[in-house]
Amino acid sequence: MPRFTLNDLAPFGKQRPFFVVKGKTRRGRHNVVALTPQETRDYEKEVRFRVIQMLGESFVSPMFPTGTPVMIDLDFVSIRPKKYQKKKDSSGLIWCQNVPDVDNLEKAVIDALHGLMWKDDRQVVSIRSRKFYTEKGNNEPRVCIFVREAGNPPIYLCDSWSDEAEQSWDGANEEFIIGAQPVPLPDIKKL
């Protein structure tokens, strides 16, 4: 399963498209086209170029054929501002709560990998994204990407969670654990 760390690449959020009138249609209406800003296109090209370099020449695109569900983990690490460089601040990674929003960061990377890792965006069934500031003394921004085939869906749904259920993240197993045991789904055939 491919894991990529794109060093010296600052996280960049996908910008909103702008609209341009390109002539008129046969019926006399204006033909409006949505265009992605150049800065966003350049960033997506850079991500794509670096991933292709890491995969090597023997790589066949797309990596996950049509119909294969894909899971993506994304870590975006920005340069830590001076206000978080104080002695009392943690020396490791710390959460980043500044702009750009994590969903815009996701969009830029996912659009860059489209056609390279998967053929259709519908194949992406799960995304986990996190935003951090670098460790103290480290001024190297980076984007970490982990793409893998999705396994079986979970045996529980959010409808079956109870209000008292303890929710915790088990980082060792990379599973979200709800309470003591997951609640099985009802058998659809009996319904």
List unreliable stretches of 5+ residues.
162-183
Provide the CATH architecture of the largest domain.
Answer: 2-Layer Sandwich
What is the element string, with H for helices and E for strands?
EEEHEEHEEEE
CATH superfamily of the largest domain: Holliday junction resolvase RusA
| CATH class value of the largest domain | Alpha Beta
Q: Determine Rg (CA atoms, Å).
A: 21 Å
In terms of structural class, how would the helical and strand content be classed? alpha+beta
Spatial strand order of the main sheet = 1-7-4-6-5
Tell how many strands the DSSP assignment holds.
9
Query: Average pLDDT across residues?
Result: 83
CATH topology of the largest domain: 60s Ribosomal Protein L30, Chain: A
Approximate strand percentage:
25-35%
What percentage of residues falls in helices of 4 or more residues?
10-25%
* Count of alpha and pi helical runs: 2
Shape summary? globular
> How many strands, what sense, and barrel or not for the largest sheet?
5 strands, mixed
Tally of domains: 2
- For the termini, the CA-CA separation is 38 Å
Keywords, please?
191 residues; globular; 9 strands; 5-stranded mixed β-sheet; alpha+beta
How do the helices and strands line up, and which of them pair or pack?
Layout: E1 3-7, E2 18-24, E3 30-35, H1 38-55, E4 70-78, E5 94-95, H2 102-113, E6 124-133, E7 142-149, E8 167-170, E9 175-178
Helix pairs in contact: 1-2
